[in-house]
Amino acid sequence: MYLAIYYTNRTYIFLVEVTGWADMTHKTKGIVLRAVKYGETSLIVTIFTELFGVQTYMVNNVRTSKQASSKAAYFQPVSILELEVYHNAQKSIQRIKEFKWASLYQHLLSNVIKNSIASYMVELLQKSLKQPETNTDLFYFCEDALLQLDTATKPVTANFALYFALHLAHFLGFRINDDYNEEQTILDLAEGNFVTERPTHLNFLEGEYALITSQLLKVMQPNELEHFKLNQESRRKLLLHYEDYYALHIQDFGKMKTLATLYGVLS
């Protein structure tokens, strides 16, 4: 922030950088990624915000009494909130002034399959977003994806994790190029391209898995997933390969904890 100082008896205008001013408040939407209990009454919450990217917030007095404890429900992972926050770029933990629901799910929190997929989506976001960088296009994609999953049919739901993993990569800067054709039928996961010959490394897909990936890359809206007739084993192997793809392109990505649960419900 800068303070302009004008000197009427000179021709110069000085801009002096000011530090230490009180935090300013901003209104922003946010998707809750993680909430951890802190002390007797508080939560430390990781939220992917529309304005500031991933941020950590201290939320006080949400677990004090029966009445107040209900406020903790706002901070379940995948909740979409309207927030008024204090923001100071110099601080690692921010504060929330006001919060309320931005959207209320119909099925996502109560349906075991949809909730497992949403948990996978949230973990994938957490592992992918390492820095608090603003990415509004990514936020809107994630918000829309969660709302679409909430009302999706069973066939769409079954393929939703595959769709999200492939299309999320686009917003992160390493989308797979959909250049599959009769000659280029092998997907090189290290390069993110379809190629004519097997690469020298083991990170590649071929056969039906390469073809299905090419078809999924063409999906523009989740309702198009209705046409994909995949079995449990195909989904499991594709999700495993997509995890490898992320690990190749994001440092210290690690292993997805939610995949084991997802394998069990996507039968």
Give an overview in words.
The strands form 3 sheets. A 5-stranded mixed barrel has the order 3-4-5-7-6. The radius of gyration is 22 Å and the shape is globular. With 267 residues, it is of the alpha+beta class. Strand 8 and strand 9 form a beta hairpin. 34% of the residues lie in helices and 24% in strands. The chain contains 7 helices and 10 strands. The model is unreliable at 1-21 (pLDDT under 50). Helix 2 runs parallel beside helix 4 (154-172), helix 2 runs antiparallel to helix 7 (259-265) and helix 4 runs parallel beside helix 6 (232-249).
In short:
The chain is α+β, with helices and mostly antiparallel strands and 267 residues long. It has helices spanning 66-69, 112-128, 136-150, 154-172, 208-217, 232-249, 259-265; strands at 2-6, 13-17, 24-38, 42-49, 53-59, 80-87, 94-101, 186-188, 193-195, 204-205.
Q: What's the order of the H and E elements?
A: EEEEEHEEHHHEEEHHH
Which residues form runs of ≥5 with pLDDT under 50? 1-21
What is the typical, i.e. mean, pLDDT? Answer: 90
What class, by secondary structure content? Answer: alpha+beta
How does the overall form come out from the CA principal axes?
globular
Portion in strands: 15-25%
Sequence of strands across the biggest β-sheet:
3-4-5-7-6
Helical content band: 25-40%
The radius of gyration computed from the alpha-carbon positions, rounded to a whole number of angstroms, is: 22 Å
The biggest beta sheet reads: 5 strands, mixed, barrel
Helical segment count? 7
Q: What's the total number of strands?
A: 10
Q: Tell me the distance between the termini.
A: 54 Å
